[in-house]
Specification:
Blueprint: H1 2-30, H2 35-49, E1 57-62, E2 70-77, E3 82-87, E4 96-104, E5 108-112, E6 144-151, E7 154-159, E8 165-170, H3 173-178, H4 186-190, E9 198-205, E10 208-214, E11 223-227, E12 232-239, E13 243-252, E14 255-263, E15 268-272, E16 277-284, E17 304-309, H5 321-332, E18 339-349, E19 353-361, E20 367-376, E21 381-389, H6 393-396, H7 400-406, E22 412-416, E23 427-432, E24 439-444
Antiparallel strand pairs: 1-2, 1-8, 2-3, 3-4, 4-5, 5-6, 6-7, 7-8, 9-10, 9-16, 10-11, 11-12, 12-13, 13-14, 14-15, 15-16, 17-18, 17-24, 18-19, 19-20, 20-21, 22-23, 23-24
């Protein structure tokens, strides 16, 4: 019995040794390539794959999605080191040919070695800077892309300059033909609030809804933000013929939404996920975010002054159509040499209390409407009530309609916004709480 057991143990031990030997051999075979050999293999892989896409590759390049949007680039590579390229950096969407190379360093990189459209994003000429903060830096772009392999048919790169991920997807013939159509989307991204006084981002996760204000878009940076009363989220935007691409993607649960389709019927952009997940940039006369900022203007608080000032705020995207219509109506009722200069509200002045002032260009005297104030904490509004004018009815007739919006019985929503316009002053919006579509933009003065 003992001899039999010993023989069994010897057989088991022999098998274990053989299995271990096989495993070790497999590991050795898997890792027998040197780092240089692995780099050369990766270089060969990239050299071979770049020319294989029939219509080349498409990349929406977000150079820094904390302050800039995305720029669509199309590439068609040839095996002999040439590349045809087009982009929507500006309205010149023609195809240009230049050189590229695949270089070895600590990793494999694709380098655009002679000037082409991609280099516009790395131009450090001060005149090319999109903002004062980026003078000498340009659009923070790169022309050297470190290769990290393939995933789902896409080529994965990271920029040498700041490590930003850029993915090349296979392009279609239609991508090249439709590239100029990207610019037709710009007015829709800027927005036309004929669809509603407020613009917001609505995120739906099944039966749960969260809303944000969608703030004014800047075309030179292709950048905007969406915000609540307590948080601000930057958002880079790239154009497409059918909508927009955003970065960072909107995260809903475990899903990331980045491709939004435009709806010309209501001016919305919608990205749709699965299982009831969606995100929509849309309009409404009802505010998407109602803040507690009204409390800072309540009776007993320190003096605050907010005012619409022309021309700085004339074209503000946050002015509603009704607001612009009423301002235009005032100007139409004035002599040609005069125009409205300011509509401002002084809250809690130590001498005169609260009052609305209308100031004019062209020598017309200021008109003042004294009001009393009260807050409605349930609706989060402040209500201005007539307490007399400095001028007679005939003089104030041209102001009647806009003044009725400011003194409507439902009160005003007052909100400090997350953006600035022209000047560094904080921006407030005042909206008719009856949700009739009136919203005016004002500086804190």
């Amino acid at each position: 019995m003992k001899i039999k057991n010993i023989l069994k143990y010897l057989v088991v031990a022999s098998l274990a040794i053989q299995l271990t030997a096989c495993t070790e051999t497999e590991v050795e075979q898997k890792f027998d390539a040197t780092p240089t050999e692995r780099l050369n293999a990766r270089k060969t892989e990239l050299q071979q794959v770049l020319p294989t896409s029939e219509f080349g590759w498409k990349a929406v390049y977000f150079t820094d999605n904390k302050q800039l949007g995305g720029f669509t680039h199309l590439f068609k590579f040839t095996p002999d080191g040439k590349v045809d390229m087009a982009s929507d950096f500006n309205t010149d969407t023609k195809i240009y040919t230049s050189d590229y190379g695949i270089q070895l360093g600590s990793t494999v990189s694709l380098v655009f070695t002679t000037k082409n459209r991609i280099h516009l994003l790395s131009d450090s000429n001060p005149a090319a800077a999109p903002t004062a903060a980026l003078v000498g830096k340009g659009y923070l772009g790169d022309f050297q892309f470190l290769y990290y392999g393939q995933e789902n048919g896409e080529l994965i790169f990271k920029t040498n300059r700041n490590g930003q991920e850029v993915r090349f997807a296979k392009a279609t013939a239609q991508d090249w033909t439709d590239l100029p159509k990207n610019f037709l989307m710009i007015p829709n991204v800027i927005g036309r609030n004929v669809y509603g006084a407020n613009r917001g981002l609505e995120i739906i996760d099944g039966t749960t809804k969260k809303t944000y204000d969608f703030n004014p878009f800047t075309t030179i940076t292709r950048f905007t933000s969406y915000s609540t009363a307590t948080e601000v989220n930057g958002l880079g935007i790239g154009y497409s013929p059918t909508g927009i691409v955003v970065s960072p993607a909107i995260t809903v649960g475990e899903q990331k939404l980045s491709n939004f389709v435009y709806n010309s019927t209501n001016g919305s952009f919608t990205a749709t996920g699965t299982n009831g997940v969606s995100a929509s940039i849309k309009y409404s006369d009802t505010p998407f975010v109602i803040s507690d900022d009204y409390k800072n203007f309540a009776p007993g608080q320190p003096q605050k002054v907010v005012g619409y000032i022309a021309p700085n705020l004339t074209a503000a995207q946050s002015n509603s159509v009704l607001c612009r219509t009423l301002l235009d109506k005032i100007n139409a009722g004035l002599p040609a040499t005069q125009s409205i200069a300011r509509v401002q509200v002084i809250f809690n002045n130590a001498v005169n209390g609260t009052y609305i002032q209308y100031l004019f260009n062209g020598g017309k005297a200021t008109i003042t409407h004294f009001v009393t104030t009260k807050v409605n904490d349930t609706n989060k509004t402040i209500v201005l009530t007539d307490a007399g004018w400095t001028h007679n009815a005939a003089t104030i007739a041209i102001l009647k309609d806009i003044d009725a919006q400011l003194t409507n019985p439902d009160g005003l929503y007052i909100k400090k916004e997350a953006f600035t316009i022209v000047a560094s002053n904080k921006i407030y919006t005042l909206a008719n709480a009856s949700n009739n579509g009136f919203r005016i933009t004002a500086y804190q003065l």
